[in-house]
Specification:
Blueprint: H1 10-18, E1 29-33, H2 35-39, E2 43-46, E3 49-50, E4 53-57, E5 60-64, H3 75-84, H4 88-94, H5 101-107, H6 109-112, E6 115-116, H7 121-136, E7 141-145, H8 149-153, H9 157-167, E8 172-176, H10 178-190, H11 199-202
Parallel strand pairs: 1-7, 7-8
Antiparallel strand pairs: 2-3, 2-6, 4-5
Length: 203
């Protein structure tokens, strides 16, 4: 059963898991992540839309419901996207990793539209991972660690911290694809193809 959704963080993955019928019997739980999936934890607004998440309260996970307040909109950004359209050029410029966030907010509406309710997203992510293991019971949990091209050059410190946590979490079997992604990056660069580490791009 494939419940993967592009743009979801580890928090929303847990919500998806909770929504699977109890009578569905799986042989394994496979969780595919990139660094951004850890950073997205603890935010109740992302990609311009409100969302549920978790925060830590006395060291325990507490659900944060979907906010009732409408998400912010960026009139300048909306006019840009309406004028240019969601073309390859628009996405290429908008997703340029070297652009400051302040610049991205002018051309990509959803980029500025996030709101954080839990700042220690690494610790919260570790708790979420343990929760996933607990929900699986005796079912093995495989954590597949993937990367964006920029992450292969300099891995975010928060992702390194989460990787350490994952390796020490009982019941989690880590599959780190760092070397495989490095090889793929090299091969794709030789034929001038763009590199993207999202699971839906490699399935």
């Amino acid at each position: 059963l494939n419940t993967a959704v592009p743009g979801h963080g580890l928090d929303q993955m847990l919500f998806r898991l909770e929504g699977i019928p109890k009578n569905f019997h799986a042989k394994a739980i496979v969780v595919g992540i990139i660094p951004n999936d850890i950073w997205r934890v603890g935010k109740d607004r992302l990609w311009g839309q409100n969302k549920p998440t978790f925060k830590l309260k006395v060291g325990e996970l507490e659900k944060v419901p979907i906010p009732t307040k409408p998400p912010n909109t960026n009139a300048i950004a909306n006019s840009w996207s309406d004028w240019i359209g969601y073309s390859l050029l628009y996405r290429t410029v908008a997703e340029n990793e070297s652009l400051p966030d302040a610049v991205r907010t002018l051309i990509l509406p959803e980029w500025q539209s996030w709101h954080t309710v839990e700042s220690d997203f690494v610790k919260a992510s570790c708790h979420i991972l343990k929760k996933i293991v607990a929900m699986g019971g005796q079912i093995p949990v495989y954590l597949v660690e993937m990367y964006h091209e920029v992450d292969l050059g300099q891995m975010p410190s928060y992702y390194a911290a989460f990787k350490t946590c994952a390796k020490t979490t009982e019941g989690v079997r880590v599959i780190d694809l760092y070397e495989e992604f490095k090889e793929a990056q090299k091969a794709l660069q030789e034929v001038y193809m763009p590199f993207n580490g999202h699971l839906n791009s490699w399935s």
